[in-house]
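Spend some time on this chain, tokens included, and walk me through the fold:

. . .
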Amino acid sequence: MPKVSTRSKVITAIVGTALAFGGLFSQQSKEPARILNADPNIQYVYTDAEGVRVIGVLDDKTTLKATARSGKYRVEKTTAFIFYGEEPPDNPTYLPFIINYRALDWPANRDRSGRWRPAPGGVSIGHPDITAGTLGGHICYNGNCNCFLSNAHVMGGLNGAQIGDPILQPGPHDGGRLSNGDEIGKIVAIVAPKSGINNSVDAAIACGNETTVYPEIYGIGRVDNVFSNPQIGMTATKCGRTTGCTTLTLAAKDVTVKIGYYIDRKWKSYVFVHQMLWQGVSAGGDSGSMIVTDLLFDSLLFAGNDNEQVMGNDPAYILQTIPGAYLPGMRYQGLAYP
């Protein structure tokens, strides 16, 4: 797939379906998809910690006039949200971190786009038909704990991927090939975004074995539970294929957002609800990274923009959407998992 510059992506993502502007605010609580699609200028809507409704806009001229009259909304200038994973840079840089679960011959500054066996979270993976994204971290699926979580679009969910398809480590952009024996698992569950509905997750699970999957995130450690009540302003860490380990700050919860995906040389937008908005560094190829606080799973990174804003799926919706998925040792909704 040909490369598309970040600038081109943002400009292209601005061009979307333009419906009537009227009714923008009155519809937001009941029809978040209609709110965002009512004006291609609007990228997201959320309620801040003080209870004020916030909208993120590409061009604040028109929207500022409307919100000034209502006096009920705060406007944030933003760039278009694009998913992270389609076009990794040619020369990524990495931060030095040491894995600490057990002694393995992995140097502190090992290249995350290289070949890892067994493969931890935070390194390059991909379906044979995409470029490269990030192995988020280990997860159990129907009793098998040699599995790993990432985005559906990283595992080919927007390119016709099916249950049973192979996942490569490293991803194809980084040299991964079936012919080289780079398969580390096969897809067992995949939930890709769809048009015309409010999506909640962009997630997929693949399962391998003990020789291919490692139960830690490189640079973070072993994550065995979900953060139960994340708060605005809390900090977290993500370790991704491209930008390594960086610190993120939670800016908003329960966000409705419009995300642009580049599929078959065309841009297509999908609306997501119940998302988590983070502030911090990420880039193309970091899609699929787990966002973690104190070894607890906060969010699954799947999109970002040029404002160092990062969008992540809420783990609660991932677990609800993929029955049979759990973290070993997890306590969730009154249940304890082995």
Notes: Residues 60-70 form the longest helix (11 residues).
